Structures are given as structure tokens and as C-alpha cells.
Amino acid sequence: MKLIRSALGCWPDYTRLEKAVEQQAVPAVVTGLSGIHKCCIIASLCQKTGRKALVLAADEAEGQRFCEDLAALGLRPVSYPLRDFNFRDTAGTSHEYERLRLEALSKLQSGGCDCIVACMDAALQYTMGPSELEKRLFSVEAGGQMEIDELLGALVNCGYTREDQIEGPGQFSHRGGIVDFFSPNDTAPVRAEFWGDEIDSLSYFDIENQRRTDPVDSVILAPCVEVIPEKPEILAQKIEKLAASLRGKTAPKAKEILHSEADKLKNGLRIGSLDKFITSVYPEAATLFDYFPAEDSLLFFSEGNKLKERMRTSLWQWGEDLKSYLSDGLLCKGLDKYGEDWEYALGKAQQTPTLFLDL
Asked: 212-225: per-residue pLDDT in tens?
């Protein structure tokens, strides 16, 4: 990377670009760049300024190439995928992409990465805000003082489900003085063995044979779902209030569904459609952009016209899907927005040092 930075330093246009970033004379547009040239500029500016980067790729294929090339140039990039919100109260929903998103955000918050790569539609989807995530990141240390109930409470607060035996991320089990859990941040589940109110040992273990493998000094427990109501009974009250306000021909269907979901929450049951209430659980709606404060971040828009077109297509598709959701009573007025638009992204570009990188 030193060789590349040295070569870039001999390029007058790059020197002017570097000064523009330092002097906040941005947004700026750089054209005539191939994919690897974009990555060289991104990596060089990040290492020069010490800022975190949000890289917005034209599509998933370009995003994957960016991750590979930026890693080769010395950065620690993480991919942030698009996910489908679940609006039906089903039990067998996959949270794979949700967990990948939370893994990326958790690593960014804890200093485990310095660059996130995403497509524009993924970056503009609503998610858990930085302050909400921060208060749910929970450190577990070998030899630390902690009651078992404190760890179990943290797991529930992070959206984990209790199982007899762990089979994948987002699950935990408890038997005697042993608590097993699988955080999205880790590649293997962790076993915490207690001796009274002290964590006697922490170690990874194999899901297949349940045997311990490598010991570990500490782990960060991260949320495994994006929508976690702190007080389900308060969410139930909000849902009932919303149901009472509905009018129109689709109102009866929507009210029936909403009352069913509220009743489950009041009875301490989990519902599979929590995604639809993200703006009720988190009144301050957040996107990936909110994890990149202007004072210590850089934004990179790759192929601005393609990003804009992708958002246009994405919003058109959402409009078509929303008609069906409203007709079926799955969504209603007040529960019909789950992301921001292109203008919002441009507004962020005006607030944070931003470069538009084009061919």
C-alpha cells in the first residue's frame, strides 16, 4: 500500500483531491476510474485521514469485488446486504441477512472494521440506530464477575431464542452452571461455565459434537435481530392505538391482524412480524448512514447514475408490493415506510465528506 500511496502522490489530481478532503471542499467527482483505481483511492484516503468509509456499490457484484480489493489493500471491509422485511407472523423466518447486517454494524461500533460496502437500497433501509446497538453490545470475559441471570437477561435483550441445544446463530441454551450462545459476531458458538457468580471459563465449541475447542478471553455479545422491543407491553399498547385509528375498506383486516399481534405481545409471546413495527420500536428511524458521523467518516458513491437508477427501481417495486400488503391488511397507514430515498442520500453527501467515483 505504501507503493500505491507513493504513486498516487505523484498524480497532481490526486494531490488536489486529498487537499479537498482535508479542507472539506467536497462533494467532489472523480471520473475515468476502473474498479481497482477506485479502491486505491478509497484505501489511500482512509489510511491518510484515519476515517471510516461507507462505500456504496452499483450492485452486489461490484460490492463483492470492492470487499476483496480493499482487503488486499490493507483495509478491513465488511459487506452490508439488503434484506427482506418480514410482515407476516410466521415462526420459520430466516434471519441470515439480518445477522450479517448486525455483524457489520457491531464490528464498526467496536472497531473491528474500518469500511462497510453496501448497495444503495441496503444502506437506505431502516435499522437499529447506533445508540440502540451500543447499549445492547455486551462484553463477556473469562474470570469476570457476573450472575447467570445477568447473562441470560442480556441474551434475551439481544433477541436470542432459547433452545435445548444450539444449532445456529441467534440461539442460546442454559443447563446448570453452563450457558451456550452463538453471537452473529463469531464463527462458532461460545460456552460460558460459571463457578458461583464468576465466569470460570469461556471457550468455543463444535456444534456437531458439542465439545469445547479453543479457549477465549472475552467475547462481545451482539444483537441477532434488528427489531427488539425493550418493553413488549408498551409496543402492544401502540399497536392497539394504531388499530383503533384505522378507517377504510381494508381496516377490518388490518385491525384483526394488529389485535392478534398485540395480544401475543401482552401474553409474553414472540411474534414473527416485528419488522413491521420498526418505526414504533425505534421512534428515531436510522439507516446505515447514521453510523458514519460527518466528523470522522468518508462516503464514496460508485457510479452515481447507477445508484440512482437502482433506487428508482427499488422504490417502484416497493410501491407495487405495498399495494398488496395494504390490501391484505398486513400493513396500514402508519406502517408503510421502511427506508429512505435518493434525496436523503444526497442530503447525507452534503453533510459528510463525499466522493463520487465514476468510470
From this structure: 888 999 988 889 89
Q: Is the pLDDT of residue 7 over 90?
A: no
The residue type found at 132 is: E
Place of cell 450479517: 100
How is residue 221 written as a grid cell?
455479545
Strand order in the sheet with 52-57: 28-30, 354-357, 297-302, 52-57, 115-119, 77-80
Q: Which residues contact 77 (CB under 8 A, 6 or more apart)?
A: 55, 66, 67, 70, 71, 113, 114, 115, 116, 117
From start to end of the chain, where are the E strands? Answer: 28-30, 52-57, 77-80, 115-119, 138-141, 161-162, 171-175, 178-181, 190-195, 198-205, 212-215, 218-221, 297-302, 354-357
Task: State the Cα–Cα distance between residues 285 and 278, nearest whole angstrom.
Answer: 8
Are 307 and 337 spatial neighbours (Cβ–Cβ below 8 Å)? no
Sign of the Cα torsion 116, 122, 123, 126 reads negative
And the C-alpha cell for 79? 459487506
How many CA atoms are closer than 13 Å to the CA of 237, on its beta-carbon side?
A: 3
Cell representation of residue 309: 437508477
SS3 135: helix
Give the pLDDT confidence of 61-99 residue by residue, as tens digits: 999 999 999 999 999 999 999 999 999 998 767 788 998
Q: Which three cell numbers stand for residue 4?
A: 500505491
Distance CA(132)–CA(227), nearest Å, equals: 10
Q: How far apart are CA 326 and CA 167, in angstroms?
A: 36
- Closest alpha carbon to 185 in 216, 148, 213: 216
Rounded to the nearest angstrom, the gap between the alpha carbon of residue 333 and the centroid of all alpha carbons in its chain is 26
198-205 and 190-195 as β-strands: parallel, antiparallel, unpaired?
antiparallel
For residue 276 the three cell numbers come to 413491521
pLDDT of residue 10: 63
Q: What distance lies between CA 286 and its chain's CA centroid?
A: 10
- Return the number of other C-beta atoms located less than 10 Å from residue 186's C-beta: 17
User: Do the Cβ atoms of 189 and 213 come closer than 8 Å?
Assistant: no
Query: In one letter, which amino acid is 223?
Result: P
CB 329 within 8 A of CB 254: yes
